[in-house]
Amino acid sequence: MKFKEYPDRDMMMIDLANALAGELNQALSGHDAVSFAVPGGTTPGPVFDTLAAVDLDWDRVTVMLTDERWVPEDSKRSNTKLVKERLLTDKAAAAQFLPFYTGENSADDAMADLADRVAPHLPLSVCLLGMGADMHTASLFPGADRLGEALAADAPHVLPMRADGAPEPRITLTAPVLRGAMSLHVVITGAEKRKALERARELDDPAQAPVCVVLKDATVHWAE
Ligand SMILES: O=C1O[C@H](COP(=O)(O)O)[C@@H](O)[C@H](O)[C@H]1O
């Protein structure tokens, strides 16, 4: 794991956005189309604000979420809402977006079709993840109902997930997809998450600390 500590959050968000833009640009120089997976939640908004204004061949970039909450797009809890409002604006509005929430009754109903839609975009060119203080990443939560399946080497690309720590059902990219990304970053803030990261490294067990699935290959970005 590479760990980058920043003097403050503003510097981290700008620096990280520039690093992601550089990696997307490099991927675009070698491929006709590239994929970019991004987290939802409360942390990545400022990274998206900077990235959205970057000059890139965004029309050759497919953006997807690392995970989605099974709520309609107009819900405050929707990760799609965040991405549409903060990332897919300005220059990045030219990117393609691959939504996970389909409006079907449940994430289980959507899973097979969604796995087929994700497949052509793998391996992910660039993947940015968040992490919760409970050491979940994407929607791989400790104790989640299908965590074992999602951690398996032969896991499907996406799986529905329910967990005590998650107020609504989720759909998430699985461990092999996340681990297979050509470039992996995790963005976290605050003392609690830094402690959680240290705990995850001690445990070194994705069943207890799901973020461990990516830590070996990821750069973790942290600011107080
Ligand atoms: O529920 C989620 O949580 C994680 C972490 O979110 P944060 O609010 O603590 O930054 C996020 O990475 C994930 O995409 C989201 O669905």
TrEMBL record:
<dbReference type="InterPro" id="IPR005900">
    <property type="entry name" value="6-phosphogluconolactonase_DevB"/>
</dbReference>
<protein>
    <recommendedName>
        <fullName>6-phosphogluconolactonase</fullName>
        <ecNumber>3.1.1.31</ecNumber>
    </recommendedName>
</protein>
<dbReference type="InterPro" id="IPR037171">
    <property type="entry name" value="NagB/RpiA_transferase-like"/>
</dbReference>
<comment type="similarity">
    <text>Belongs to the glucosamine/galactosamine-6-phosphate isomerase family. 6-phosphogluconolactonase subfamily.</text>
</comment>
<keyword id="KW-0378">Hydrolase</keyword>
<dbReference type="GO" id="GO:0006098">
    <property type="term" value="P:pentose-phosphate shunt"/>
</dbReference>
<comment type="pathway">
    <text>Carbohydrate degradation; pentose phosphate pathway; D-ribulose 5-phosphate from D-glucose 6-phosphate (oxidative stage): step 2/3.</text>
</comment>
<dbReference type="Pfam" id="PF01182">
    <property type="entry name" value="Glucosamine_iso"/>
</dbReference>
<dbReference type="InterPro" id="IPR006148">
    <property type="entry name" value="Glc/Gal-6P_isomerase"/>
</dbReference>
<dbReference type="GO" id="GO:0017057">
    <property type="term" value="F:6-phosphogluconolactonase activity"/>
</dbReference>
<dbReference type="InterPro" id="IPR039104">
    <property type="entry name" value="6PGL"/>
</dbReference>
<dbReference type="GO" id="GO:0005975">
    <property type="term" value="P:carbohydrate metabolic process"/>
</dbReference>
<comment type="function">
    <text>Hydrolysis of 6-phosphogluconolactone to 6-phosphogluconate.</text>
</comment>
<feature type="domain" description="Glucosamine/galactosamine-6-phosphate isomerase">
    <location>
        <begin position="7"/>
        <end position="222"/>
    </location>
</feature>
